[in-house]
């Protein structure tokens, strides 16, 4: 059994190490100390708990949990546990999740969701009462040889987020598109202010490459890119319900990826639910190829 000690996260001292743990467990994610700090600030009203496991003066594990701000299910909770590879199967994760269980009882959790990618993590999750739910495909594309931008339909225009006076258009199209993504829980549309706190102020948001397509003054499609260094992640690509089936999601994503490549990005990643056939088709046509498989796991809390 591990001799690791469990303590609260010290953001100043621990953030870089925790970011490294995520990079080891989820190498396709864009995760750094600034993003961790943002997530903690944004979750101030959602009973967030952040813990680390420390052994011999080194942080070797991290766990976080909070009520899910974007779910309509009462007590819906998200959680994540990551342990340094060299310290796995030594009880570190078990110590961390034992602490989370007490927090779930205190905050009234009813359903806890997490994500994992490998068989070892799946076995750990199963031992702790989680079962696999949804499957996501993580895809990658080098940002070379991108398609040319198709001709825009008459009356349509592309706008980078940086060109817009505020984020209301992005909030509007995000609220429409996200609600239709396959999910285990009903989606809750956030108010503009809450959405800005959670998403619009994310330090990874690439305002120069995130692109919206307008029909007149109406935002009808979006390609949202986050960026750290020379890598971008598609946070969201989609089209207003009334405009689907016209190739607009592909058009706006080509525009965003070409802008990112022109500004030095070299690699693009995205995730899609395995049941989201339309977006998988869009990404396949754009040259994305399977990179990893990610699973959602769920645990009911009685």
UniProtKB/TrEMBL annotation:
Is Acyltransferase given among the entry's keywords? yes
Q: Which InterPro entries match?
A: Acyl_CoA_acyltransferase (IPR016181), Bact_Acetyltransf (IPR050832), BioF2-like_GNAT_dom (IPR038740), GNAT_dom (IPR000182)
Concerning PROSITE patterns, the annotation shows:
GNAT
Provide the N-acetyltransferase domain boundaries. 4-153, 156-302
Q: Which GO terms describe its molecular function?
A: acyltransferase activity, transferring groups other than amino-acyl groups
UniProt keyword annotations, A-Z: Acyltransferase, Transferase
The record's listing under Gene3D superfamilies reads: 3.40.630.30
Q: What is this protein called?
A: Putative N-acetyltransferase YhbS
Species: Stackebrandtia albiflava
